[in-house]
Design goal:
Blueprint: H1 23-29, E1 30-33, H2 45-53, H3 62-68, H4 84-96, E2 102-106, H5 114-129, E3 133-137, H6 141-147, E4 151-155, E5 158-163, H7 165-171, H8 177-185, H9 189-194
Helix pairs in contact: 2-3, 7-8
C-alpha cells in the first residue's frame, strides 16, 4: 500500500491512487508507522516532527502532533535518548503529522507499557472519529478487537478469514480472536511471532 515493495501479483489502490505509479500523491494522503524506527539519533523529537512537517502542505503543528502521542514533555529529548516506547510513539507522530487520510500502523503498541498502550489506543480511536482510515498490522488480538471494524487474517500471505472481529471469532467457533487465530492457522500467536 505504501509502495515500499514491488508486488509479485495483484493490484492495490489507495484512495484511487496506485502506490507505485503515484508515489508523490500517495505520500500526501498516506501515513506509515513501521515497527522499527530508524531516525537521526542526534535530532530531538521536536526537530524530527518539524522536519516531517516540511514534507506536507497542511501539516499538524509540532505541538499538536507531540501532544497527540503524549510526547510534549520530551520535545527537546534527542531521539537516541528516548525509551523504546517513546521512540514508538514518535514514529506514530511522524506518520500522523501530515494529516493523512489513511494510516498504516505496524505493530502499533510494541514496546509500550500497559498505560501508554491504552493511551495510544485512545489517540487512535480519536483519529477514527475524525474519519481517518487505519490499517493496523498486529499480533495483539485484544488490540485488533478494540480498534478494528473489520479484519483480514493472513496465514503465509493468504487470506484465511475476514469480517468483523465477531464474525471471524464465530467463523472459527472460538471464544475470542486469539483462539480464532489458533483454530484457523493451527499455530499459536507466539509461533507466529517466532517466524
Amino acid at each position: 500500500m505504501a509502495g515500499l515493495r514491488k508486488p509479485d501479483r495483484g493490484t492495490v489502490s489507495v484512495l484511487g491512487l496506485d502506490p507505485r505509479r503515484d508515489r508523490a500523491k500517495i505520500r500526501q494522503v498516506l501515513g506509515v508507522q513501521l515497527q522499527d524506527a530508524y531516525l537521526h539519533q542526534a535530532l530531538t523529537a521536536a526537530e524530527l516532527v518539524e522536519l516531517y512537517r516540511s514534507f506536507y502542505p497542511n501539516p499538524r503543528s509540532a505541538d499538536e502532533t507531540l501532544d497527540l502521542v503524549e510526547l510534549s514533555e520530551h520535545r527537546d529529548t534527542m531521539f537516541e535518548k528516548l525509551s523504546g516506547g517513546q521512540k514508538q510513539r514518535l514514529s506514530v507522530a511522524l506518520a500522523l503529522v501530515g494529516r493523512p487520510r489513511v494510516v498504516i500502523l505496524d505493530e502499533l503498541t510494541t514496546g509500550l507499557d500497559p498505560r501508554a498502550r491504552r493511551r495510544m489506543w485512545s489517540a487512535i480511536e480519536k483519529l477514527r472519529i475524525e474519519g481517518v482510515t487505519l490499517v493496523l498490522v498486529s499480533h495483539a488480538m485484544d488490540e485488533v478487537n478494540r480498534l478494528c471494524d473489520s479484519l483480514v487474517l493472513l496465514d503465509k500471505g493468504r487470506i484465511i478469514a475476514q469480517g468483523t472481529p465477531a464474525e471471524v471469532t464465530a467463523q472459527a467457533q472460538a471464544a475470542d480472536l486469539e483462539e480464532a487465530f489458533v483454530a484457523l492457522t493451527g499455530r499459536s500467536l507466539q509461533d507466529e511471532e517466532d517466524l
